[in-house]
Amino acid sequence: MPPSAESSRPATGFPADDARCPCGSGDVFGACCAPFLRGAAAPTAVQLMRSRYTAYAVGDAAYLVETWHPTTRPATIELDPALEWRRLAILGTDRGGPFDDRGTVEFDAAWREGEARGRLHEVSRFVRDEGRWRYVDGDVG
Ligand SMILES: [Zn+2]
Protein backbone atom coordinates (compact mmCIF):
# COMPACT_ATOMS: atom_id res chain seq x y z
CA MET A 1 0.00 0.00 0.00
CA PRO A 2 1.50 3.39 -0.90
CA PRO A 3 2.19 5.66 2.03
CA SER A 4 -0.27 8.50 2.45
CA ALA A 5 0.13 11.77 4.28
CA GLU A 6 -1.99 10.38 7.11
CA SER A 7 -0.13 7.12 7.56
CA SER A 8 3.25 8.86 7.57
CA ARG A 9 2.54 10.07 11.09
CA PRO A 10 3.99 7.56 13.59
CA ALA A 11 1.47 5.89 15.89
CA THR A 12 3.49 6.91 18.91
CA GLY A 13 5.62 9.93 19.64
CA PHE A 14 4.76 13.49 20.49
CA PRO A 15 3.87 15.93 17.74
CA ALA A 16 5.72 19.22 17.42
CA ASP A 17 4.17 22.10 19.33
CA ASP A 18 3.15 23.76 16.07
CA ALA A 19 1.65 20.57 14.60
CA ARG A 20 -2.07 19.94 14.64
CA CYS A 21 -3.22 18.55 17.99
CA PRO A 22 -4.16 14.84 17.77
CA CYS A 23 -7.43 15.54 19.63
CA GLY A 24 -8.77 17.31 16.56
CA SER A 25 -9.63 20.57 18.25
CA GLY A 26 -8.22 22.44 15.26
CA ASP A 27 -5.62 24.07 17.49
CA VAL A 28 -1.90 23.36 17.54
CA PHE A 29 -0.56 20.77 20.00
CA GLY A 30 1.47 23.32 21.98
CA ALA A 31 -1.62 25.43 22.65
CA CYS A 32 -4.05 22.53 23.17
CA CYS A 33 -3.22 19.24 24.92
CA ALA A 34 0.56 19.60 25.34
CA PRO A 35 0.44 21.74 28.53
CA PHE A 36 -1.76 19.10 30.23
CA LEU A 37 0.49 16.22 29.16
CA ARG A 38 3.35 18.25 30.67
CA GLY A 39 1.60 18.61 34.02
CA ALA A 40 -0.79 21.57 33.92
CA ALA A 41 -4.25 20.92 35.41
CA ALA A 42 -6.98 20.72 32.76
CA PRO A 43 -9.61 23.30 33.75
CA THR A 44 -12.58 21.33 32.40
CA ALA A 45 -13.56 17.68 32.09
CA VAL A 46 -13.73 17.94 28.31
CA GLN A 47 -10.19 19.33 28.16
CA LEU A 48 -9.00 16.42 30.28
CA MET A 49 -10.90 14.04 27.99
CA ARG A 50 -9.23 15.56 24.92
CA SER A 51 -5.79 15.36 26.53
CA ARG A 52 -6.36 11.72 27.48
CA TYR A 53 -7.37 10.93 23.92
CA THR A 54 -4.16 12.64 22.79
CA ALA A 55 -2.22 10.55 25.31
CA TYR A 56 -3.71 7.40 23.77
CA ALA A 57 -2.88 8.72 20.30
CA VAL A 58 0.77 9.48 21.15
CA GLY A 59 1.32 6.51 23.48
CA ASP A 60 1.69 8.42 26.76
CA ALA A 61 0.64 5.68 29.21
CA ALA A 62 2.04 7.55 32.23
CA TYR A 63 -0.37 10.43 31.64
CA LEU A 64 -3.28 7.99 31.40
CA VAL A 65 -2.36 6.48 34.77
CA GLU A 66 -1.93 9.91 36.34
CA THR A 67 -5.30 11.18 35.13
CA TRP A 68 -7.19 8.00 36.07
CA HIS A 69 -8.99 8.15 39.40
CA PRO A 70 -7.11 6.03 42.00
CA THR A 71 -10.31 4.11 42.84
CA THR A 72 -10.74 2.77 39.29
CA ARG A 73 -7.23 2.99 37.85
CA PRO A 74 -5.85 -0.22 36.37
CA ALA A 75 -2.58 -1.45 37.88
CA THR A 76 -0.83 -1.02 34.53
CA ILE A 77 -1.83 0.35 31.16
CA GLU A 78 -0.44 -1.42 28.13
CA LEU A 79 -0.92 0.54 24.93
CA ASP A 80 -0.93 -1.39 21.70
CA PRO A 81 1.49 0.46 19.41
CA ALA A 82 -0.24 -1.00 16.34
CA LEU A 83 -3.54 0.62 17.30
CA GLU A 84 -3.80 4.08 15.83
CA TRP A 85 -6.38 6.57 17.11
CA ARG A 86 -7.59 8.47 14.08
CA ARG A 87 -10.24 10.93 15.10
CA LEU A 88 -12.11 12.21 18.14
CA ALA A 89 -15.57 13.74 18.13
CA ILE A 90 -16.98 15.22 21.32
CA LEU A 91 -20.71 14.59 21.17
CA GLY A 92 -21.79 16.23 24.40
CA THR A 93 -20.83 17.28 27.88
CA ASP A 94 -22.72 17.59 31.14
CA ARG A 95 -21.23 19.84 33.83
CA GLY A 96 -17.46 19.31 34.09
CA GLY A 97 -16.82 23.05 34.06
CA PRO A 98 -14.34 25.13 36.05
CA PHE A 99 -16.81 25.36 38.98
CA ASP A 100 -17.97 21.74 38.99
CA ASP A 101 -16.48 18.75 40.75
CA ARG A 102 -17.98 16.15 38.46
CA GLY A 103 -18.98 15.87 34.87
CA THR A 104 -19.55 13.59 31.92
CA VAL A 105 -18.27 13.71 28.37
CA GLU A 106 -19.78 11.73 25.50
CA PHE A 107 -17.44 11.04 22.63
CA ASP A 108 -16.86 8.93 19.57
CA ALA A 109 -13.31 7.92 18.70
CA ALA A 110 -12.23 6.19 15.50
CA TRP A 111 -9.30 3.77 15.48
CA ARG A 112 -7.39 1.69 12.99
CA GLU A 113 -5.22 -1.34 13.51
CA GLY A 114 -3.77 -2.74 10.31
CA GLU A 115 -6.74 -3.32 8.04
CA ALA A 116 -9.22 -3.27 10.90
CA ARG A 117 -11.15 -0.12 11.70
CA GLY A 118 -13.56 0.61 14.48
CA ARG A 119 -15.08 3.19 16.71
CA LEU A 120 -15.38 3.64 20.41
CA HIS A 121 -18.47 5.43 21.69
CA GLU A 122 -18.37 6.18 25.40
CA VAL A 123 -19.97 8.37 28.03
CA SER A 124 -17.10 9.00 30.43
CA ARG A 125 -17.41 10.13 34.02
CA PHE A 126 -14.92 12.54 35.55
CA VAL A 127 -14.48 13.93 39.05
CA ARG A 128 -12.27 16.73 40.26
CA ASP A 129 -10.21 16.18 43.40
CA GLU A 130 -7.84 18.83 44.71
CA GLY A 131 -8.18 20.86 41.53
CA ARG A 132 -7.43 17.97 39.19
CA TRP A 133 -9.97 16.38 36.88
CA ARG A 134 -9.65 12.62 36.72
CA TYR A 135 -11.31 9.94 34.63
CA VAL A 136 -13.44 7.57 36.75
CA ASP A 137 -15.15 5.19 34.33
CA GLY A 138 -17.46 5.13 31.37
CA ASP A 139 -20.37 3.46 29.65
CA VAL A 140 -19.31 2.05 26.31
CA GLY A 141 -21.83 1.40 23.58
ZN1 LIG B 1 -5.74 18.77 21.92
TrEMBL record:
InterPro entries: NTF2-like_dom_sf, SEC_C_motif, YchJ-like, YchJ-like_M. Residues 44-138 form the YchJ-like middle NTF2-like domain. It comes from the Bacteria. Gene3D superfamilies: 3.10.450.50. Pfam families: SEC-C, YchJ_M-like. Belongs to the UPF0225 family. HAMAP family: UPF0225. This is UPF0225 protein MTO99_03395.
